[in-house]
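Example S7 (C-alpha cells).
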C-alpha cells in the first residue's frame, strides 16, 4: 500500500536528502541461501511502461492476484504462474488507491470514487460523493458495510445494499491506514503519526489514541492484540526513516492489562516502509523497505534471527505496495517501475492463495480450423471436423455406434494330435509339430450366423445381476459456495435421520444405526453419564439424542468418531483407518465384525467403571465421619481408593481388562483365546452363580473377586462352560467364559459325512454356540502336547443374540446354497476306515466312520426344508437350552409348526434331559457388505415391531424394503456381516420399564 505524502504538502525529497544520503543508505545485503521465500514469477503489468503499481491484493475466494496502477487501470493474474485473467479501466485519470475482494467481485478505490466490478471485468456500480475528496484506504466491516478513509477529517461508512453513507467526523489529520486484528477494534493511522483505536460496532467514538511516530506514519498492521508500525522520526526538522519496527500491545494501551511493556522495537537492516502480518503464523510479520529489502520478523522474540531476502527492483525507493495471501504461502510486491513480483517458500513451487478456493471461471476456448498451405501434401484432411447441420440431420460418413464395436477373430482350437502327444513338465507342455499348417499361418474359425446367435443367447443368460442404486456408495461432495450435487430429499423420504459419511472412520454408520434402533441399548446409553473426557458411551448417548431431535435431518457422528480415535484398544485392533479415506484393500466384513465386538466390550467396561466410581464416592462420603473402633482382624471395606478430583474424575486411570464375569476360575494363569479372537482372563467367582464342587475350580490363595454385570452384558452376554479333555489320559478341565457376540464357524471343505452344516443356517448357529473341536494342547499329566477335544456348553442365553457371519472366504456358502453329496463322496465315506478318535472326534468333514453318525446313504435320503438353504435366513429361531448344556434350535415358520430339523433334537430325545429354558428370537437387524467398487456397508433395521417394517440405511439414503429382500442372500454382491436376533420378551420388558407411570 502506498501513501501519498505529497498531498499533505510534504515533498518526497525530504525522505533522504543529500546531506544524509550516505549516512542512511543501507548496506549491501549478501543473498541468503537460507531465506524462507524466493521469487516465483515477475511480470510487467498492463501499462507498466508508463505507470507504477499503486495497489495490490490477493483474492479471498479464488486463486487470483489483483493490482491497480497510477493510470486507473486494474489487472488480475491467475495462479503462481501469473497468467493474465482480466484487465479493465476504472477511472480515466485517477490512480487506484486500494482494492478489496468480496464474493460478488471487487471494490477498487480511487481518489474520489468507489468502483464495483465483477471478476470478469463487467462494471456493476460506481459510487461518488461530495465527502470523497481524497480517499486513501478501504476496510470491509461486514458483508454489507465498508469503511473508507483518506486525507480528510472524516470517515465514511457505506451500506452496500442501500448505497447510503454515514459520515463519521475524526479529530486526527486524516486516516491513511485501516487495519484490524480480527477482533472488535480497528486501527486508524494518520499521516502525522497518530493512531486511534475504534470499535467496529460504534466507530464514531475513539477507544484510545496515541502517537506512534514523531514525524509521520508509513504503515501499520494488527494481529490479535498486537499492533506493529513503522514511520519517520523528526531529526533537526527533517523526517528520517526509522530503522526499526515498533510493536504495541493494545491491551496495555486500553488499560485492561497491568504490568509488562507497552511497546518494544525490532531492529531491521533497512528502514521499513511497508508492514504485514503473516495470517497463517502467530507473531510473524513481513517488513519491506523502499529499496526492496524484505525481513521476516518474530514479533514476540526481538533477539531472534531474521530471514532476509531481496526484491529485484530497478531503482531505489521503488517498492510501493505489498500483500500476503491468506495461507501465507505467497507474497506479492509491486514497484513504481510497473512490475509485480510473486514470492513463495523455497520448496513450494505451486503455492495456493486460499485454503478453499472456488474454481475460477474462464472463457471457452475457440476451436479454430488448422491453417494448411496449398503446397502441403502430407496433411490429412480427414482430421478437420465437418460443421454441424442446422436441421438436425447427420452426414453420410457418421455411422451408428454398433459399427465401431471391436470384434476379434476366434482362434482355432488346438489340434487333438498335439494334445494327444503332449508331455507335461510342470505347468509347461511339450509336443511335436504335426505339420498340419503352413509356416507362420494363423488359422481362424469363421463364425456362422448360428454361432453368433448362440453366443448372444449365452451372453444374455449369464449377465450378472446389477446392484440397485440405493445399495451403492453415495459420493457426497459438498459445495461450500453453491448448491450441493446430491438431492437429499430424493434419498430419504421416510422421515428417519441419516448419518453423513464424509469423515474418516465413518464405515461404522451402519452399526450406529442398528444400535440406535435397538431400544434397550438406546435407553441404556441415554441414561449413562460420567465425567470421563473421551467416553464412547457418553458420545453415543449424545449422538442418539441428536438423532431424536433432528426431525429427520441428516446428522454427523463427528464427536463420537473423534473420541473413537483416542481409544488405544481401537488402534491396536486396526479399527482406525487413515484420514485419506477408505482403502479398497480393507476387508470391510472383518472390520465391521471386529468393531461390533469392540464397541460392546467398550460400553460394558465404561458402564462398570462409572458404577465403580459412584460406589467409591458413596463409600468416601460414608467414611468421612469419625472412624469407629474395629477389630484387628477385620478387613477394610475400601482399599487403595483413588482420590477424586474437583470434577469427579479419579487420578488413577482405568485399565482396560477383558470381560468375564460368570462362573468359577481355573487354576491356570495363562490366557485362552476364544473363537471371536478376544482373550479370556480368569479372575474369580460371581456371587450370583453356584460354585462347582470340582477341585480344579478352586481359586489359588482363596482370592475371589466380584464380577459385576452391566446393562450391556445382561443384553448380549452368552455364558458358556468349556470342557477340555485329553484324548490320551482322559483328564478333564472346565472353565467358564462369556462372549458378547457369537462367531459362526463354517465347515472346512465340501460337506461330507457327518458335516455340521447339513441343516443349513440353523445347524451352523447351533454348532457355533456349542463349539466342538479337536486341537493339540498341553497336558499336565502327559507333560507334552496331546490331542485335546474342546466342547462348549451354553449356560445362559442372551436377550439379544449378536452373530458375526465370518469373512469373505465363506461367501460361497451364501451364494451357492445347500450342496448335495456326490456319489464319489458317498462311496468313499461308506467304505472308509473307522476314525481313531471315535465318539470324541470334533473334526468337521471327517471322512472316516463314526458310530454315532449316519452313513452317506442315510444322509442323502433325508430331505432339507427350504428354510435350510444357506442363502436364506430364518426370520425366527426357537432356541431351547437343555439341562446338560446342549441346545436345540428350530426354524420357527409362521405358517407351519416347528419340527425338529437338526440332528441334535432327535439325538437328545433319547436321553433323560429336561428343557432348562426356551427363547424365541426374531431377526431385528442385519449388516450387509455390498461387493461394489468401492465396497459399502448397509444396514437392514426393523423399525416397527408391530407392522414388521424394514428399512435400508445407507448413510443418508434410507428406503423401505420388504422382509424377503432382507433374508435372501443369493446375489453375488450381497454378503451378510452381522446379524441381530432379539427376543420379544426382552423388548417388551424394556419398553415397559422405560414407559413413565
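Recovered sequence:
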Amino acid at each position: 500500500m502506498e501513501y501519498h505524502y505529497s498531498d499533505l504538502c510534504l515533498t518526497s525529497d525530504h525522505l533522504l536528502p543529500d546531506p544524509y544520503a550516505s549516512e542512511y543508505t543501507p548496506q549491501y545485503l549478501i543473498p541468503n541461501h537460507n531465506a524462507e521465500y524466493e521469487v516465483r514469477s515477475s511480470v510487467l503489468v498492463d501499462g507498466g511502461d508508463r505507470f507504477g503499481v499503486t495497489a495490490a491484493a490477493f483474492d479471498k475466494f479464488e486463486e487470483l492476484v489483483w493490482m491497480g496502477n497510477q493510470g486507473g487501470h486494474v489487472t488480475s493474474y491467475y495462479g503462481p504462474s501469473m497468467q493474465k485473467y482480466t484487465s479493465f479501466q476504472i477511472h480515466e485519470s485517477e490512480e487506484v488507491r486500494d482494492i478489496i475482494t468480496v464474493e460478488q467481485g471487487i471494490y477498487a478505490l480511487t481518489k474520489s470514487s468507489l468502483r464495483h466490478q465483477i471478476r470478469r471485468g463487467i462494471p456493476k456500480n460506481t459510487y461518488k460523493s461530495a465527502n470523497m475528496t481524497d480517499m486513501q484506504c478501504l476496510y470491509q466491516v461486514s458483508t454489507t458495510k465498508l469503511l473508507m478513509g483518506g486525507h480528510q477529517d472524516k470517515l465514511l461508512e457505506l451500506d452496500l445494499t442501500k448505497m447510503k453513507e454515514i459520515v463519521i467526523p475524526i479529530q486526527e489529520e486524516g486516516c491513511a491506514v485501516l487495519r484490524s486484528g480480527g477482533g472488535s477494534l480497528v486501527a486508524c493511522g494518520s499521516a502525522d503519526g497518530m493512531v486511534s483505536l475504534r470499535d467496529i460496532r460504534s466507530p464514531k467514538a475513539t477507544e484510545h489514541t496515541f502517537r506512534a511516530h514523531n514525524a509521520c506514519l508509513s504503515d501499520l498492521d494488527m494481529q490479535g492484540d498486537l499492533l506493529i508500525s513503522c514511520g519517520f522520526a523528526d531529526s533537526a526538522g527533517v523526517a528520517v526513516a526509522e530503522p526499526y519496527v515498533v510493536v504495541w500491545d493494545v491491551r496495555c494501551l486500553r488499560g485492561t492489562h497491568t504490568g509488562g511493556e507497552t511497546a518494544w522495537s525490532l531492529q531491521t537492516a533497512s528502514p521499513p516502509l511497508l508492514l504485514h502480518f503473516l495470517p497463517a503464523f502467530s507473531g510473524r510479520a513481513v517488513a519491506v523497505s523502499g529499496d526492496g529489502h524484505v525481513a521476516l520478523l518474530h514479533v514476540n522474540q526481538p533477539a531472534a534471527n531474521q530471514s532476509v531476502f531481496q526484491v529485484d527492483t530497478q531503482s531505489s525507493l521503488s517498492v510501493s505496495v505489498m500483500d500476503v495471501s491468506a495461507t501465507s504461502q505467497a507474497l506479492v510486491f509491486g514497484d513504481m517501475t510497473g512490475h509485480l513480483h510473486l514470492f513463495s517458500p523455497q520448496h513450494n513451487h505451486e503455492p495456493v492463495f486460499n485454503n478453499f478456493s472456488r474454481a475460477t471461471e474462464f472463457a471457452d476456448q475457440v476451436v479454430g480450423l488448422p491453417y494448411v498451405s496449398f503446397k502441403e501434401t502430407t496433411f490429412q484432411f480427414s482430421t478437420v471436423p465437418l460443421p454441424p447441420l442446422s436441421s438436425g440431420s447427420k452426414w453420410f460418413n457418421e455411422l451408428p455406434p454398433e459399427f465401431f464395436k471391436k470384434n476379434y477373430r476366434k482362434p482355432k482350437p488346438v489340434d487333438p494330435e498335439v494334445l494327444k502327444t503332449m508331455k507335461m513338465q510342470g505347468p509347461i507342455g511339450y509336443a511335436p509339430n504335426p505339420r498340419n499348417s503352413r509356416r507362420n499361418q494363423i488359422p481362424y474359425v469363421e463364425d456362422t450366423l448360428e454361432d453368433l446367435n448362440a453366443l448372444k443367447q449365452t451372453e444374455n443368460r449369464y449377465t450378472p445381476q446389477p446392484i440397485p442404486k440405493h445399495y451403492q456408495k453415495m459420493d457426497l461432495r459438498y459445495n461450500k459456495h453453491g448448491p450441493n450435487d446430491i438431492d437429499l430429499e430424493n434419498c430419504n423420504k421416510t422421515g428417519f435421520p441419516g448419518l453423513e459419511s464424509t469423515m474418516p472412520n465413518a464405515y461404522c454408520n451402519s452399526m450406529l444405526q442398528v444400535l440406535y434402533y435397538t431400544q434397550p441399548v438406546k435407553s441404556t446409553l441415554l441414561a449413562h453419564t460420567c465425567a470421563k473426557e473421551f467416553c464412547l458411551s457418553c458420545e453415543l448417548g449424545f449422538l442418539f439424542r441428536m438423532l431424536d431431535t433432528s426431525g429427520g435431518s441428516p446428522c454427523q457422528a463427528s464427536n463420537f468418531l473423534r473420541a473413537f480415535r483416542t481409544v488405544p484398544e481401537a488402534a491396536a485392533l486396526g479399527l482406525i483407518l487413515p484420514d485419506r479415506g477408505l482403502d479398497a484393500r480393507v476387508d470391510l466384513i472383518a472390520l465391521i465384525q471386529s468393531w461390533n465386538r469392540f464397541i460392546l466390550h467398550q460400553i460394558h467396561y465404561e458402564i462398570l467403571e462409572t458404577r465403580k466410581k459412584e460406589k467409591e464416592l458413596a463409600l468416601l462420603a460414608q467414611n468421612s465421619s469419625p472412624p469407629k473402633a474395629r477389630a484387628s482382624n477385620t478387613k477394610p471395606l475400601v482399599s487403595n481408593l483413588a482420590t477424586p478430583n474437583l470434577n469427579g474424575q479419579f487420578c488413577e486411570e482405568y485399565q482396560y481388562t477383558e470381560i468375564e464375569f460368570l462362573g468359577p476360575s481355573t487354576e491356570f494363569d495363562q490366557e485362552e483365546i476364544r473363537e471371536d479372537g478376544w482373550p479370556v482372563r480368569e479372575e474369580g467367582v460371581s456371587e450370583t452363580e453356584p460354585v462347582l464342587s470340582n477341585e480344579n475350580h478352586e481359586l489359588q490363595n482363596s482370592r475371589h473377586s466380584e464380577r459385576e454385570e452391566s446393562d450391556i452384558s445382561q443384553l448380549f452376554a452368552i455364558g458358556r462352560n468349556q470342557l477340555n479333555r485329553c484324548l490320551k489320559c482322559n483328564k478333564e478341565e472346565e472353565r467358564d467364559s462369556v462372549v458378547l457376540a457369537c462367531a459362526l464357524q463354517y465347515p472346512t471343505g465340501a460337506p461330507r459325512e457327518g458335516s455340521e452344516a447339513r441343516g443349513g443356517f440353523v445347524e451352523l448357529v447351533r454348532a457355533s454356540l456349542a463349539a466342538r473341536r479337536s486341537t493339540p494342547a498341553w497336558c499336565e499329566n502327559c507333560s507334552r502336547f496331546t490331542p485335546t477335544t474342546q466342547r462348549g456348553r451354553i449356560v445362559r442365553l442372551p436377550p439379544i443374540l449378536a452373530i458375526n457371519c465370518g469373512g469373505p472366504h465363506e461367501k460361497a456358502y451364501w451364494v451357492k446354497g445347500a450342496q448335495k453329496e456326490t456319489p464319489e463322496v458317498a462311496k468313499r465315506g461308506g467304505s472308509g476306515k473307522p476314525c481313531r478318535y471315535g465318539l470324541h472326534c470334533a473334526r468337521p468333514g471327517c471322512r472316516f466312520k463314526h458310530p454315532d453318525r449316519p452313513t452317506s446313504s442315510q444322509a442323502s435320503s433325508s430331505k432339507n426344508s427350504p428354510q435350510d438353504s444357506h442363502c436364506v435366513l430364518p426370520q425366527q429361531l426357537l432356541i431351547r437350552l437343555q439341562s446338560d448344556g446342549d441346545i436345540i434350535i428350530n426354524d420357527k415358520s409362521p405358517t407351519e409348526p416347528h419340527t425338529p430339523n437338526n440332528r441334535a433334537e432327535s439325538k437328545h430325545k433319547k436321553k433323560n434331559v429336561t428343557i432348562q429354558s426356551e427363547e424365541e428370537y426374531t431377526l431385528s437387524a442385519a449388516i450387509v457388505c455390498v461387493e461394489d467398487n468401492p465396497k459399502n456397508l448397509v444396514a437392514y433395521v426393523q423399525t416397527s415391531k408391530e407392522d414388521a417394517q424394514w428399512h435400508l440405511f445407507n448413510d443418508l439414503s434410507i428406503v423401505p424394503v420388504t422382509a424377503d429382500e432382507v433374508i435372501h442372500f443369493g446375489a453375488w454382491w450381497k454378503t451378510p456381516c452381522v446379524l441381530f436376533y432379539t427376543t420379544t420378551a426382552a423388548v417388551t420388558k424394556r419398553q415397559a420399564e422405560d414407559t413413565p407411570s
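Notes on this example. The longest strand covers residues 915-930.
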